[in-house]
Specification:
single chain, 443 residues, 7-stranded mixed sheet
Length: 443
């Protein structure tokens, strides 16, 4: 198949590259000339494991190309993968969807299938069809398919080829068969449904996963009060096949470009249809409050934070991505700065992006050692492998006072107990070993 993909963000670029990898001829379209030139040379504008290797491979084979030209005369199928960012009221901004639809309509010369990969509110695909049909030549037939993505940033390429299912929503049998053929090389189960149900599946899936995260974080708060260990609780829960162990890791909540946006959007969708989604509102509230727990624990450990040197380990919203959207480090850094702390941040990948998200008072360091040197408190925010593998001796050697507040439960309590650190994690007992401040550390 000859496929055009409009939009080269996380979803569009991974979709286009993956479709090229399974043998289709894919043209990825973006209006940013500099970005297109960079991608055409095999350089990815986003950090995503394995993506650049596949880009280079398929550019060289001729299966993948990039352009700013908005023409679709040779395309068998057109994918829309533009952003749908969140508006201040929680609804999805559909201006890029509308622009893409208008561009498609003006360029059509034959009957076309348009596949929506973007996450859109229920009913949007019918609206897209109307937009295109109103502006396209009258004799051209347009068929719309909803094909939502379920990719995790940081493992998007892996998920594309190892997912649980592919959802195809359409009432048109011919389009269904064509999409089946396109996706057959992935070798994944395909689930067929109607347009609106496919749109809802995306929101409902993310909302449910977000609910599991907020639920276990609430359980972690109770565990701290009663002296239980949330990791043991989650493990015991997860052994029940009806529950499962995924997304039961207590921490400082979810972030990124999907869960916050999609949960808020689903609340708005419900409200627009006269349904008060009380459960999901609580999920959002719990997640927002969870992020401040590290700041609260820091104050409990050292008192007034003014003038204290606080190290932030990990800045991106999750490991293996440079995405800073809705990252927990943002509100944490802002609150620490507001309380007068001297904030130092480290991330193996995300520092260039973090500079535009975090307060200008935050200092950025290129190494973990520089970040920890002279610190009064270290906050673990993102569970990068390089951070999880920090030897606990490093904290005791470099910090003024080895107080580690772990927002991702990176260390086992047995390991921590063997070192003179004050260790606070989420939903687990505090390890308060005796330590002596390192007077040799200089700030």
């Amino acid at each position: 198949m000859r496929i055009s993909v409009i939009g080269t963000g996380y979803v569009g670029l991974v979709t286009g590259v993956s479709l090229a990898e399974i043998g289709h001829h894919v043209t990825c379209i973006d209006i940013d000339e500099a970005k297109v030139a960079m991608m055409a040379s095999g350089i990815s504008p986003i950090y995503e494991p394995e993506l650049e290797q596949l880009m280079e491979k398929n550019i060289q084979s001729g299966h993948l190309s990039f352009t700013t030209e908005l023409h679709f005369s040779s395309a068998d199928v057109i994918y829309i993968a533009v952003g749908t960012p969140q508006l201040p009221d929680g609804t999805s901004d559909l201006q890029y969807i509308e622009q893409a639809s208008q561009v498609i309509a003006r360029s059509l010369t034959k009957d076309t299938i348009v596949v929506t990969k973007s996450t859109v509110p229920v009913g949007t695909n019918h609206w897209i069809k109307t937009l295109i049909e109103e502006a396209a030549p009258e004799e051209i037939k347009v068929t719309i398919v909803s094909n939502p993505e379920f990719l995790r940033e940081g493992s998007a390429v892996y998920d594309t080829f190892n997912g649980d299912r592919i959802v195809i929503g359409t009432e048109n049998n011919e389009a269904k068969e064509i999409l089946d053929d396109i996706n057959a090389p992935f070798g994944l189960p395909i689930y067929h449904t109607d347009l609106k149900s496919a749109e809802m599946i995306k929101y409902a899936s993310n909302a449910f996963l977000a609910t599991k995260i907020s639920f276990i974080n609430e359980i972690s708060a109770i565990c701290e009060k009663v002296g239980a260990n949330v990791e043991d609780v989650a493990l015991g829960m997860g052994k029940d096949n009806r529950i499962g162990d995924k997304f039961l890791n207590a921490g400082i909540g979810y972030g990124g470009s999907c869960f916050p946006k999609d949960t808020n959007a689903l609340v708005q969708i419900a409200g627009n249809n006269e349904h008060d989604f009380k459960l999901l509102k609580s999920v959002i509230e719990v997640n927002n409050s969870q992020r401040m727990k590290l700041v609260e624990r820091a104050r409990e450990a050292v008192g007034d934070l003014s003038g204290k040197r606080i190290s932030l380990l990990g800045l991106s919203f999750k490991p293996n991505t440079d995405d800073m959207r809705e990252a927990a480090s943002i509100p944490i850094a802002k609150e620490l700065v507001n309380q007068g702390a001297d904030v130092v941040g480290y991330d193996p990948i995300a520092i260039p992006n973090a500079r535009s998200f975090l307060p200008e008072e935050v200092q950025f360091k290129e190494t973990i050692e520089e970040t920890l040197c002279g610190a009064d408190v270290a906050l673990i925010i993102t569970e990068w492998d390089v951070i999880k593998s920090i030897d606990l001796i490093t904290y005791t050697t470099l910090m003024t006072s080895p107080i580690v507040i772990d927002g991702r439960n990176c260390y086992s309590l047995d390991e921590v107990r063997r070192h003179p650190v004050h260790y606070i994690s989420i939903g687990r007992p505090v390890v308060q070993n005796r330590f002596v401040g390192n007077s040799l550390n200089k700030r």
